[in-house]
Amino acid sequence: MSFEWPWQYNFPPFFTLQPNVDTRQKQLAAWCSMVLSYCRHHKLYTLDVMEAQESPVFNNKKLERKLSMEAIQVVFEELRKKGNLEWLDKNKSRCLVMWRRPEEWGKLIYQWVSKNGMSNSVFTLYELSNGDDTEAEEFHGLEEWMLLRSLQALQADGKAEIITMDDGKGVKFF
Amino acid sequence: MHRRGVGAGAIAKKKLAEAKYKERGTVLAEDQIVQMSKQLETFKSNLEEFASKHKQEIRKNPQFRVQFQEMCATIGVDPLASGKGFWSEMLGVGDFYYELGVQIIEVCLALKHRNGGLITLDELHQRVLKGRGKYAQDVSQDDLVRAIKKLKVMGNGFGMIPVGGSYLVQSVPAELNMDHTVVLQLAEKKGFVTVSEIKDSLKWEKERACHVLDHLLKEGLAWLDSQAAGEAQYWLPALFSELTSRDITPEEANQMTP
């Protein structure tokens, strides 16, 4: 299913950082929402800023409008403030996009575990994210760094324990 | 018989005549009252019959409503003027427009953050119809205009700006003067306007044009597009036709009163 763009995407001024403060706030909120939805739809977990400039999200070729580098940085900063983005480097050239926060992922994973009566079982990280059993689940394909954070959130909640195994990490659910 | 002087007999006779006239007057009044009372009864039951016959029609048929309103105007009655009384209580005309007014406010509130409180009558109509669902009564643009006029009178900050053969409905009391209105009308064709267009069409100085555009930006009615070829374009979300094809987002839906 292709991504459904919100009405703003086809509104030319959307790609100009608005001078009016109130309008800008609405604009940024819409950008954040759109970026997160887009990443969620395409299961993107990281973004490279240079590449992002040319991606359809920030560059609407049909409309001949694109968000300037300065504006993209403003949007990213907004996402970071909301807790949906983390810079991977000091130069701010690459970032993690958390369209779902670790706690939310943790909850989903735990729900799957309980539903299938798998409490007290042990899994490797790979089994969780790439195993046949989880193919239908939303967290299937979850990148390891995110999976780890989600499990850490569950751990903090007393619902799981991350263990170190021979060839990597695993987790035990309670 | 004495020629001169009024004797006691004459006086007494006069008094008797007066008394008789008075009595007659009273008798007449009583008569009239009974008559009038009978007429009132007939009138009342005719009104009730009218109401029951036409109440349904008024609620269901937009065309009938227009004709009904015009008829009322001819005889000098405004069915929407008074809150109580025959028109609103028996015919429910007031209710109909009151409910419609509430719906209009809901739609405008939900979209305010998008268009700054300005919406085309077309889009308002579409959304009101959508909100009413399949089985609700049909509502015409004439109905909307009347309901909005009523809202305006009640001081809800509503106004209507004529543009391109229809109206822009203003639901937020943004200060719009003649200059602003005229620019809105100019923008109606393409959904945006530029300084040059304003200067050419309206023969204004650049400063005046910029002043108006700045005001529209400030009121949240216009957005700036600085990537347009040539010069900056000022777009109005309210006139952005694609909006009408998009559903209201969940965030917007939360704005609607329950």
UniProtKB/TrEMBL annotation, chain A:
Gene, per the UniProt record: vps25
Database matches in InterPro entries: ESCRT-II_cplx_Vps25-sub, ESCRT-II_cplx_Vps25-sub_N, WH-like_DNA-bd_sf, WH_DNA-bd_sf
The entry's keywords: Cytoplasm, Protein transport, Transport
Transport in keyword set: yes
Family: Belongs to the VPS25 family.
Single GO biological process annotation from the record: protein transport to vacuole involved in ubiquitin-dependent protein catabolic process via the multivesicular body sorting pathway
Location (main, coarse): cytoplasm
Localization (cell): Cytoplasm
MF terms in GO: protein homodimerization activity; structural molecule activity
Keyword Cell inner membrane: no
Name under which the protein is recorded: Vacuolar protein-sorting-associated protein 25
One cellular-component annotation, GO: ESCRT II complex
From TrEMBL, chain B:
InterPro entries noted in UniProt: ESCRT-2_cplx_Snf8, Snf8/Vps36, WH-like_DNA-bd_sf, WH_DNA-bd_sf
Coiled coil (UniProt feature): none
One Pfam family hit: EAP30
GO cellular component: ESCRT II complex
Location in the cell: Cytoplasm
GO biological process annotation, one example: optic chiasma development
Entry keywords, A to Z: Coiled coil, Cytoplasm, Protein transport, Transport
UniProt superkingdom: Eukaryota
Quaternary structure note: Component of the endosomal sorting complex required for transport II (ESCRT-II).
Function: Component of the endosomal sorting complex required for transport II (ESCRT-II), which is required for multivesicular body (MVB) formation and sorting of endosomal cargo proteins into MVBs.
Family: Belongs to the SNF8 family.
PANTHER family for the chain: EAP30 SUBUNIT OF ELL COMPLEX (PTHR12806), VACUOLAR-SORTING PROTEIN SNF8 (PTHR12806:SF0)
Name under which the protein is recorded: Vacuolar-sorting protein SNF8
Organism: Betta splendens
Gene (UniProt): snf8
